[in-house]
Amino acid sequence: MHEAEVGVLIVDTDVVRVEQQLRQGRLECPSCGAVLAPWGHGRPREVRGDLGARLFLRPRRARCSGCGITHVLLAQVVLPRRMDAASVIGAGLEIAARGMGHRTIAAELGLAEGTVRGWVRRFPFRAEDVRRHFTVALVALADEPVVPEASASTLADAVSAVVAAHRAAGAKWAGVNTVSRWEFAGRVIAGSLLTCASSPS
Ligand SMILES: [Zn+2]
Known about the structure:
Layout: E1 6-11, H1 15-23, E2 36-41, E3 45-48, E4 54-57, E5 60-64, E6 70-75, H2 86-97, H3 102-109, H4 113-141, H5 154-172, H6 181-188
Helix pairs in contact: 2-3, 2-4, 2-5, 2-6, 3-4, 4-5, 5-6
Zinc ion is lined by residues 29, 31-32, 34, 64, 66-67, 69.
């Protein structure tokens, strides 16, 4: 790659809508807020969905008219650098929040233990940021926010905050109900559920 800096922007799953947004200058650079312009495509990728479904994506790329950074527009069904769909990873994190280990989760989801171990080991490093982010979102979204009580597990608290924020967003905007809570979560936190800084590959 020639570009020194490549970012990622999590976008709608509907490619036609994203293309319209891009061409009408309605997508903003996550780094500086300037308008993004079409800039080719990223490399194709395959993602594992629910029940072994396979999804093929060819993410659009966009270049910022302000800072010049190139961004990969990643559909919210996926998270950066992960082969599994956001909803699948989220389902695993929800089971982990109930105190289950990676072997149990892997068996329940029908995935390799090593794959699940990767998420379950990584998420605790992000959990406090995720909890804080979605607690703030919940308070902003709900008319009478009920912040989940803290438990003994930061991981479980982070999952509870995501669930509560998604519910509040669904009450406010009906369209959010059609989006799985972990796709919602990935988009709201700019893809950084498992990784700190978003990276497109
Ligand atoms: Zn920019």
